[in-house]
Amino acid sequence: MSKFGGLGVLSHVETREHAYLASIETSREILKRSGLNSDNTVQELGEQQAQAGVPEERNFYRRLEPAMPTVAEEQQRVVSQKTRTMADMQKKYDEFLEALPPDIRLAFVDMTSRIGMAWLHAMSTNGKYRHLTDSQITNAVNIQTLSSQVSEGLCPKCGEVDSLMHFEACPNTSKQLIWNHRHNYVRDSTAAALSKDKKKQVSKEPHINHNNNQRGDIRVEVAAGEHEDNDYFGFVDITVKAVLGVHTEQARADARAAAELLNHGKLKNTRAEIEAALQLGAEAKRRTYREAIAQGARFRPLVISSGGTLHKEFYEYLKAMIPDPQVRSNLCTDVSIALVRARAELLSARAR
Ligand SMILES: [Zn+2]
After folding, report:
1. pTM as predicted
2. Which of 15, 29, 94, 226 is spaced 20 to 30 Å from 23 by Cα?
């Protein structure tokens, strides 16, 4: 269930009902096949439970539809515990999103993106790009469970309003260093994944433009003796973007207004807001390199949010340039850990 943003531990109180109902339904299927199922069987069980003092709301035999199924019901598949639990989780998740303040909702949806969550499944590994200290894990879990607010009221460091995501905005001396580390980890792990394909020649920090010494993050060219080439070859520049900044406010508001007209529900609307903020990042990078682009350089901005949402161009790039799903998935885990480590470090730098 961690896809809903939790830590994957289900409450037995909440799943109990689904387990009972699924189990009763499965049993009834078996009884039907043996010719033993009847209204009476389930009614009797319900009465036995009532006599044994089971409260009405927990007497699941009584809550069922009449025991003898109609023809249509006979043909329906038994609803499993997992399906019941998932439907219940989905409903609770929608209610939860609905109840969050807009900024927190956005940060939460961002962090529970696929890459945002990937680190939770990789904590025991310890590769080149994968290391989290105990305190980083503590901080990361506090952020993920929306318990990252340090004070109530104003931030004692900068005087701005404290909030769950204030650690991203609060200025501090190590911030630039944390940002650089994060950026370089994402760049290095992406370059490492790209160079697994021997048909590609990958270089880091290549010159883009000889006139003004601009450097991109990665250049991919066709390796000597190879012919594979496509639109995605050329220079890329990687941006890790915090989506809740002031300068994205208007774009997010516009996206929210447009999405609400389509009535897709909170999750989709919130994702549209994040995408709008990431789009600003991509456009800014195209402006930065406009001269080189005008001179014919093949350039792509690769933008990902600090919570782990890939901008659509970054997503397309990964699909096209790293076709091996295993290599891509490992890269996503590396990137996830780089992002979560930076979030954790920003929180400790802010809390001190
Ligand atoms: Zn502050």
Report:
1. 0.79
2. 94
